[in-house]
Amino acid sequence: MAQPTPEAEKGPAGTRQETSVVVPAAAGGGPVSHAIFRLARLHRMFAGQLLRRVGLHPGQEVVMMHLWELGPQRQTDLVQLLDSDAATMTRTVKRLEQAGFVRRRPSPTDKRAALIEPTAASRALRHEVEQIWSQLEDLVTADLSPDERTAALITLERLEQNLVRATADPASTDTER
Description:
This protein has about 180 residues and is of the alpha+beta class. The chain contains seven helices and five strands, in the order ββααβααββααα. Helix 1 (about 30-50) runs antiparallel to helix 6 and helix 3 (about 75-80) crosses helix 4. The radius of gyration is 20 Å and the shape is globular.
């Protein structure tokens, strides 16, 4: 049976009101994981709405951020840098190329490789993308004090480290059935 979990939500005039999120019984053993799933889904959806204004989809802006910061990169380097997979990066780069935000040019050091570089059109987007990320940050952390923001970031980093360790040790995800 699904269990509601209390979720605090800002109501009218800044008052806090309780809402109920239905957590399926099957997810009852993982309330934190279910909350992360919901948060990630909402965050990506809202980021998508903001990014759509500048012609980007979620995830593409992160590729662009690295290209703006580091300059031209081989696609394999982007895969490693973003902890992605080759197929996803191929699709992402292809879409960014079709939109005119990146171009490929031959690598001067490796005849088999191409470098992915930002175009002038994408460099013109940088300020807008930075503003979108600031807006998203402000919305996500709107009612948190500076100390709560710091604590949230520390907690999220610890959760990420736990998953990185689990990914590095496949035996840790093996469970007896």
